[in-house]
From TrEMBL:
Native organism taxonomy: Eukaryota, Viridiplantae, Streptophyta, Embryophyta, Tracheophyta
Gene3D superfamilies for the chain: Glycosidases
Keyword Hydrolase on entry: yes
Name of the molecule in the record: glucan endo-1,3-beta-D-glucosidase
Keyword Protease (UniProt): no
Keywords: Glycosidase, Hydrolase
Organism of origin: Fagus sylvatica
InterPro entries per record: GH, Glyco_hydro_17, Glyco_hydro_17_plant
Name of the top EC class for this enzyme: hydrolase
Any one GO molecular function term: glucan endo-1,3-beta-D-glucosidase activity
GO BP annotations, alphabetical order: carbohydrate metabolic process
Length: 262
């Protein structure tokens, strides 16, 4: 599951962590170094994907000391938090202003982890890929965006095609042994075309069932997947960006969904 804070009506981090425990959510994604959330995660068994904000990339890429400090303040100082991944940046566009800093920032974060004596914790460093970077290059990704495939009941066709497009790209870049983590996916329930509670519920329910297996190209699942998002983000724009939450701010679910499919 994912946790964002682009809203002014969200429950405090401690209450969110209790929600995770009650629902047996075992992994979380934070898009930035929220100290209150990190504090609340201490001593839990929740594994964390911690994000490095785009705005930090230039400083981290330019200075190993800066990267060391970032890891010390946000990872090393929380030794009883189960860090699983450090996600450097988020969907960096190849033609965008942060692209030139991404690789060096990833290298410096990896070095900083070892400098902090955390090498044995097996914290992996990666970056959430900008999907459109591959959409025009690999047929599986092209095929997933036909009009008939937009409906949430078509989740296997869309989801598998996109994943297999990335696997094809990895193979062509001599990275065929790597596994892909789906760092966010979901469906908004209002604010745009083809948005409704029914569609959101159908998409997310189908998602949970289908990630238990693999894709046609990589059939040996499950697929590690982070659902987007725990709560609405009422300070985002446009409207559909506000409405991806699975829960209301009072922590009640918006629709019935089984998070732990057998």
């Amino acid at each position: 599951m994912e946790r964002l804070s682009v809203g002014n009506n969200l429950p405090p981090p401690g209450e969110v962590i209790e929600m995770y425990k009650q629902n047996n959510f075992q992994r979380m994604r934070l898009y930035g170094q929220n100290q209150d959330a990190l504090q609340a995660l201490r001593g839990t068994n929740i594994e964390l994907m911690l994000g490095v904000p785009d705005e930090e990339l230039q400083n981290i890429a330019s200075s190993q000391d800066y990267a060391n400090t970032w890891i010390r303040n946000n990872v090393q100082n929380y030794g009883d938090v189960k860090f699983r991944y450090i996600a450097v940046g988020n969907e960096i566009r190849p033609d965008g202003p942060y692209a030139q800093f991404l690789f060096s920032a990833m290298q410096n974060i990896q070095t900083a982890i070892y400098n902090a004596g955390l090498g044995r914790k097996n914290i992996k460093v990666s970056t959430p890929i900008y999907q459109a970077a591959l959409a025009e290059s690999y047929p599986p990704s092209k095929g997933s965006f036909t009009c008939s495939a937009r409906w949430p009941t078509w989740i296997p066709k869309i989801f598998y095609a996109i994943l297999d497009a990335f696997y094809s790209a990895l193979e062509k870049a001599n990275g065929g042994s790597l596994n892909i983590v789906v760092s966010e996916t979901g469906w908004p329930f209002q604010g745009g075309q083809e948005t409704s509670f029914e569609y959101a519920s159908t998409y997310n329910s189908n998602l949970i069932r289908h990630v238990m297996g693999g894709t046609p190209k990589r059939p040996a699942g499950p697929i590690e997947t982070y659902m987007f998002a725990m709560f609405n983000e009422n300070e985002k724009n446009p409207d559909y960006e506000k409405n991806w939450g699975l829960f209301y701010p009072n922590k009640q679910p918006k629709y019935q969904i089984k998070f732990n499919e057998e």
